[in-house]
TrEMBL record:
Record bears the keyword Lyase: yes
One of the record's GO molecular function terms: hydrolase activity
Protein's organism: Amycolatopsis carbonis
InterPro entries, A to Z: ACMSD, Amidohydro-rel, Metal_Hydrolase
Keyword Repeat belongs to the record: no
Protein name: Amidohydrolase family protein
This protein's UniProt keywords: Lyase
Regions crossing the membrane: none
Gene3D superfamilies for this protein: Metal-dependent hydrolases
Length: 271
């Protein structure tokens, strides 16, 4: 069992604000989620849970959780600036409004722009997304793209990672992180990372004990700097994720440290 390093980063935490009946949509995948949502989690409770599990910093996500989630996240970041950074889900179907939103998010210190195929029902190489990609390059922001079958019972085809091959070619400067694991297209995700140096991988919404073995192998070999942990809290708890992560077959403590801390720290903050 590995030891948790200092500076553990959770690359995806949701605020205590959700759309109607989220447990109904994805509760079949996450035991205990309904109870966690019914209980609710205050900002102070979230910080306490992070402390108890050994999480130093979290990337809060707004734009999909519900009304007021951006304000909740900004208040959390302002109160605990050493503990939280911000990301936001942008909807490219809103055209120039979405591009101007990216500019506003950059001014507010957001460190990641996320786009969800399950929401937009657009492939990632759709022309509607290209202005967002260009603006992110201009502003130095990475883009997080959900890949793989989504938990909500909506069509999965829009989260096929293969269209990202076109994006990486057209925007070689764009930093991309593949979110939510990519199943059943995990091998495609890994091939994309092997091919394109600016693509990384985030394990959000996947319990570590269920991580595909191809991902662990990649993180132990040529992808040691490209795979980062995320919980998608409250879908998964920090305690469970890090307890299971310590038992994963990483090659060394150094490889484990990169997975739970150093890779996200470098990706989001450059250090």
């Amino acid at each position: 069992m590995f030891t948790l390093p200092r500076g553990v980063v959770d690359a995806w935490i949701n605020p205590n604000i959700f759309p109607p009946d989220p447990a109904k949509d994805v509760g079949y995948l996450f035991p205990g989620l309904a109870e966690r949502l019914t209980r609710g989690t205050s900002l102070e409770q979230l910080v306490d849970e992070m402390d108890a599990a050994g999480v130093a910093k979290g990337i809060l996500c707004s734009g999909y959780s519900g009304d007021g989630d951006r304000e909740w996240n900004t208040a959390a970041r302002d109160k605990f600036p050493d503990r939280f950074a911000l990301s936001h889900v942008v909807d490219p179907r809103e055209g120039i409004k979405s591009v101007r939103l990216v500019e506003d998010l950059a001014r507010d210190g957001h460190v990641l722009i996320r786009v969800l195929g399950l929401q937009t029902r657009l492939y990632y190489n759709d022309a509607a997304l290209y202005p967002i990609y260009a603006k992110c390059i201009e502003l130095g922001l990475p883009v997080g793209l959900n890949v793989g079958f989504p938990g909500p019972q909506v069509p999965s085809k829009y989260q096929d990672p293969l269209p990202i091959d076109d994006v990486a070619e057209f925007f070689p400067e764009l930093r991309i992180v593949l979110q939510h694991g990519g199943e059943p297209w995990v091998d495609t995700c890994i091939k994309l990372m092997v091919k394109w140096p600016n693509i990384s991988y985030m394990t959000s919404a996947i319990a570590p004990k269920h991580l595909p073995q191809q991902v662990i192998h990649y993180a132990n070999t040529r992808g040691t700097d490209r795979v980062m942990w995320a919980s998608d809290y409250p879908l998964l708890t920090h305690e469970r994720c890090l307890r299971e992560a310590r038992d994963l077959p990483f090659r060394s403590q150094e490889h484990f440290d990169k997975f739970v801390a150093h890779n996200a720290q470098h990706f989001f903050f450059g250090s």
